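Illustration: PIG-L family deacetylase.
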Amino acid sequence: MSARKKALLKRHRRNKRVILALLALILTAFIDVGVYNIGPWWISPILAMLFWLAHEAWFADHLFYSPRDSYRYSFPPDSVALPVALSEGQVLCCGQDVPVSADTLILEVDVRSTWAGFLLDPQVLISGMPEPDRQDFERRVSGKRYLNLSGAGESLRDGKLTLKGKCCRLGKTAILHAFSHPDFSKQKLMIIAPHADDAELAAFGLYSESREPVIVTLTQGEVEAGYYRRLGLDTAAAARLKGRLRTWNSYAVPLWGDVPIENCVQLGYYCLQLSEMRAHPGEVYGSRESEEADIRGARYLNKHSLPGDADGLPTWQNLIADLVELLEHHQPDVVVMPHPELDPHDDHVHATLAVDQAIAQSSWKPSVQLLYANHLADNDRWPMGPANCGVALPPAIEPLPAYAPWSPKLSSATRIDKAMALTMQHDLQIPLPFKKRLRRVIQCFLAGRVWPAIGEDEFFRKAVRRHELFWVRRPPADGLQMPSLRVEV
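Result:
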């Protein structure tokens, strides 16, 4: 976690303690303790219940930034930036027209919450195209935001696209950023998934449209298996069961997206151990919970032998050797992997660092890397809003590298297939605890939020969207290896 986020978290906790102390004083003032009493005792529990309801409805989101901060994005200098005027909601492009070749369109616009936006999620309603869209932002938003208009190029060029703020107001001027890319789904893809389900969450639409995609899952994902202990298993046995289930998921679920099993590779390393492995490349790091330390048990369906098969040791050296062998054997044009600046999960960061190191050592150099973010450090609700809506760019309060976004649009049929793929992931089918269920009921009635009926896990809302979103990272023109991005977690 960065120093800025640590400071924000410290301030949040300090303010929370102060508020709780004040509330305690208010509540005790209604109880006759022989010192001071301002009303009947029964008012105190009623106020406590109201305060709790307000917290669950409006103050339970985890934001490690102020909603009044502007997002800070920079894009490659060769991208197109068009001045835009918003007249009665209609988007009017000035100067040159929107390029016909532009597949990804991002509108940089000022969004300011109205008073209603303090209680309800501010929304931008997008109409004038075959399938209307909605993109949500933080309550109390006030600053620069980036709407995703990918797929609306024809409506923009025809002057039919309109925007309407609900619980918010839009600025009168904006900038339309247009990006033109080849269709990466037509190229040879290698998708790096730190855990089973990461490939589906980030790129099911992409890989289900691709020719000969290869999905490489790095870990068994066996930790945090407490749910399976209800079967009468101890901690180690529960972790082994979870690891087996998620290993099976990494082979079986891609079949739903027409990926043959011979193109699914499970490396079998252990969850949350990649950072230690990288710090000590030659040392063995077995599972934290399953008491296993042999990666070969998870590789039983791999169709191609790998260097790590020789001794089965979970070491960084074996991981890099495995990735080098996979790169040279499959020779992908594009590697899809986590964005280490945006996605703070420790295994995701080190998965990308491992791929960078493997590419440096490999004789095969992919021409493009597509970066994705399944987790977010700043805002655990992004993408905000309900399922099947568009994906606005995520919070970027600190400067990010100037990568171009690529955001392919998913048809309604593909979104249904993606939702079905997520239902097959065992880790996304664990029931919510009672506290979260109750919070959702409260937020539904008081804050107007909705969740999809297909599944309880938050990823059914966040991942089944109109767009998938990637950042395009290319190797330098001089052929030197790209510097590895680091994020402090």
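Reading the tokens back as a structure: The CA atoms of residues 251 and 261 lie 6 Å apart.
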